Amino acid sequence: MTDFARTRALFDIPEGMIYLDGNSLGPLPVAAKERVATMLADEWGKHLIKGWNAAGWMNQSRRIGDRVGKLIGAPEGTTIMGDTLSIKVYQALAAALDLNPGRQVVLSDSGNFPSDLYMAQGLIGSLGRGLELKVVEPEAVADAIDETVAVLMLTEVDYRTGRLHDMKALTAKAHAAGALTVWDLAHSAGALPVDLIGAGADFAVGCTYKYLNGGPGAPAFIYVAPKHLETARPALSGWLGHEAPFAFDLDYRAGAGIDRMRVGTPPVIALTVLDAALDAWEGVSMADVRATSIALCDLFIAEVEKRCPDLVLATTRDGERRGSQVSFRHPQGYAIMQALIARNVIGDFRAPDAIRFGFTPLYIGEKDVLGAAAILETIMKDRLWDRPEYHRKAAVT
Ligand SMILES: Cc1ncc(COP(=O)(O)O)c(C=O)c1O
Ligand SMILES: Nc1c(O)cccc1C(=O)C[C@H](N)C(=O)O
């Protein structure tokens, strides 16, 4: 069994805070502070430009991509770091559409994170070849897969409700209909076991500032299935994805394998933080993380339903069918979350009415769950949310 007391000590969480928002931004890994200080002083400070080779900065995106790959069932050489998740969504979708010409539909669902849908809309507008973004309810996705679909683009775990799609079954259905798949793992990577090879996913993307604790604005990752590695065309054809960046040719030629998904200069300092953050996963079993996350979420649901009858569960009770988060609905959700935050229980609010809590076994345990439920109970029983300072100011027009 993974020693979660050990992993908890690897994170800097302010005394007295119950941090249930690691599904949005993970806490600071203690080791990152020293690692970055050393990197700044010894690598940038001493090597300057020589650091690209001497300190391994040029290979960092690939090396750390492989570290992330281990957590999502991706073999070496199929995952690379860089840019933001929105950019990686664009890149993956563009490459997938290019591999499946002659079809018109990008299929997604209303549980997808808006940025993914916005990037698809922007890309489709630029391509101008009659493509259409079709957005259906999450439960209707399987039935909407037909021979018009070029690409099925989904986020595995719904950011609001935590609902988990069956990646393997939907990918198989998409392939049977002749479609390719792009999976967004923003709320999956580090939250639950992911098996990209086993699921047969074509492309996957994700961020590293949530369950992977890489810090605000940490770089995203992109995965390309081995069968597409030499044929996927990077629409964002920056110089570092070129076959020979330092030949400075005037024409683009895609680099070998996953390197072609690089765009421009990597964020070396941010990657250094992420590298330190990923050390926390050494000796951690993702099966233990999953089992503990399900148990913590189950406990939170049971305690909150017992103590706060006015809150309506927005997440499935079936632990196998959700990610690592729990949401409740209430018309005063915003004020309730402000009252929680004022009492050092940190979750977040997602419009129109959801209060959302992430459970991250690396640093959250039963005591936190019980503590948060007790504070929530007081807020609900004593209507502590009903104070002017917890309500949104009226919009100024
Ligand atoms: C599923 C999903 N996709 C995309 C994004 C956008 O990522 P970024 O702001 O890093 O581009 C987020 C989070 O913000 C997300 O949760
Ligand atoms: N990336 C974020 C940011 O830069 C600011 C505030 C929030 C975020 C988030 O990651 C939001 C997150 N994707 C969500 O699930 O709501």
From TrEMBL:
Record protein name field: Kynureninase
Catalytic function, reaction form: L-kynurenine + H2O = anthranilate + L-alanine + H(+); 3-hydroxy-L-kynurenine + H2O = 3-hydroxyanthranilate + L-alanine + H(+)
A Pfam family annotated for this UniProt entry: KYNU_C
NCBIfam families in the record: kynureninase (TIGR01814)
Keyword Hydrolase: yes
Gene of this entry: kynU
EC code(s) of this entry: 3.7.1.3
Similarity section: Belongs to the kynureninase family.
Subunit structure: Homodimer.
Keyword annotations from UniProtKB, A to Z: Hydrolase, Pyridine nucleotide biosynthesis, Pyridoxal phosphate
InterPro entries named in the record: Kynureninase (IPR010111), PyrdxlP-dep_Trfase (IPR015424), PyrdxlP-dep_Trfase_major (IPR015421), PyrdxlP-dep_Trfase_small (IPR015422)
Signal peptide residue numbers: none
GO molecular function: kynureninase activity
Function per UniProt: Catalyzes the cleavage of L-kynurenine (L-Kyn) and L-3-hydroxykynurenine (L-3OHKyn) into anthranilic acid (AA) and 3-hydroxyanthranilic acid (3-OHAA), respectively.
Cofactor requirement: pyridoxal 5'-phosphate
Record pathway: Amino-acid degradation; L-kynurenine degradation; L-alanine and anthranilate from L-kynurenine: step 1/1; Cofactor biosynthesis; NAD(+) biosynthesis; quinolinate from L-kynurenine: step 2/3
Gene3D superfamilies with a match to the protein in the record: Aspartate Aminotransferase, domain 1, Type I PLP-dependent aspartate aminotransferase-like (Major domain)
